Amino acid sequence: xxxxxxxxxxxxxxxxxxxxxxxxxxxxxxxxxxxxxxxxxxxxxxxxxxxxxxxxxxxxxxxxxxxxxxxxxxxxxxxxxxxxxxxxxxxxxxxxxxxxxxxxxxxxxxxxxxxxxxxxxxxxxxxxxxxxxxxxxxxxxxxxxxxxxxxxxxxxxxxxxxxxxxxxxxxxxxxxxxxxxxxxxxxxxxxxxxxxxxxxxxxxxxxxxxxxxxxxxxxxxxxxxxxxxxxxxxxxxxxxxxxxxxxxxxxxxxxxxxxxxxxxxxxxxxxxxxxxxxxxxxxxxxxxxxxxxxxxxxxxxxxxxxxxxxxxxxxxxxxxxxxxxxxxxxxxxxxxxxxxxxx
Length: 343
What we know:
Helix content is 26%, strand content 20%. By secondary structure, the protein is of the alpha+beta class. Helix 3 packs across helix 4 and helix 3 (75-86) packs parallel to helix 6.
């Protein structure tokens, strides 16, 4: 069952609201509330061709989904679009190509656009929708990113670390007033429905999300969207699936997919951020994980919710990483996948 939650940021956040990080917070919440045995059983239930009990999407601007990562239109298709909507004189042509260049940077589509296009999606049709809605810019103005320098403190001497200058950069995300985010949660085992609701509505708002929670960062207000109807995403005879999550699982290279890559340098949370799970000095950092970003397109009608968790991501073999995605079915034209004959 697919659920939707609405998130209102109450402070800046230091850690992006990505699916794998949200899953990590969920695991710590289970550990603290249900105990280690319950958490271990939960993690062991992934894989073996069984649907995952719980999966999270990343969070998106409310009323939007990630734009499918399909190949760019051919030059002839772009020229045709410009000629039809902007005219053929030089000034109009310049305006048309400039507009399409800006549209290419838009990484979100509205739910209305998705509803109109999910039964025959293509970027060409999306551009038609952008033109009809008079879309001028992307959706980047709903958040602001601030990069600042911080000092690295030597915990023994209590002074700034001298080696390397003792400085490192950090990114802080500020959301504009009135901005809400949507989070999708797939629950395939009913016993977890109440746990998920408690985690999102009570636990996260009480404890905060991501880095610097103790300094007031990552403060969120979250509500369950009880009016959400998962049937709005149904498609007859789909031939592709859109990922709403960060993706990485064993055997992923065998899947026919279109994607953007991101390397995640994960860090352990909870008590493992300060105490080594195997004893000795803390080892908070995971091994780098190569992931598909949200918006990846899998050229299959089958859900990917039965994949296993990633193993061998840390020196402690118990630690795993969730790159199993929440996906939506849709139908896309073949020339959108492989390019038109004119390309």
